[in-house]
Specification:
By secondary structure, the chain is mainly alpha-helical. The chain has six helices and no strands. The longest helix has 27 residues. The chain is globular and about 50 Å long.
Length: about 140
């Protein structure tokens, strides 16, 4: 499958995540809800790694990759904690668009950090995403 199909499926599952998380966090302390969700993600990720044979590359991960993967894991955990807290006190239809401002941040930070080209199209799309998120959050 192409990157586009994987991205579209990611969007569908992200939407399901927001809706299911809002329902799940309704009567559960947000940090506990995050811990339960994270446990499920960890188990599922290892099942996928073992079933695909990906686990065999574990010994070959270099130090730099370990560092960035660990930092990414910490960022993910912090993101989830903040997301669940926001869902526990806010409307999912407002929280999710603000969360997607991450797209705008990626567009802006991929240029200096990853050397990706910043184009008029990317800036315009990012501005539209930001405007949409703000409109939805204020509405």
């Amino acid at each position: 499958m192409s990157w586009l199909m994987w991205s579209l499926m990611s969007a569908v599952f992200a939407a399901a995540t927001a809706l299911l998380a809002k329902l799940g966090v309704a009567h559960v302390e947000p940090n506990l809800a995050t811990a339960v969700r994270t446990t499920v993600v960890v188990l599922f990720a290892w099942i996928m790694a073992f079933s695909s044979g990906g686990h065999t590359g574990l010994a070959h991960i270099d130090r730099r990759s370990w560092l960035f993967l660990a930092a990414s894991g910490l960022a993910t955990g912090l993101s989830w904690i903040c997301y669940f807290r926001a869902l526990s006190v806010g409307e999912a239809s407002k929280v999710a668009p603000i969360d997607k401002l991450s797209v705008v941040l990626v567009i802006l930070l991929a240029w200096p950090l990853l050397g990706e080209a910043i184009t008029t199209r990317k800036l315009t799309g990012g501005a539209l995403i930001a405007a949409g998120a703000i409109i939805l959050a204020l509405g």
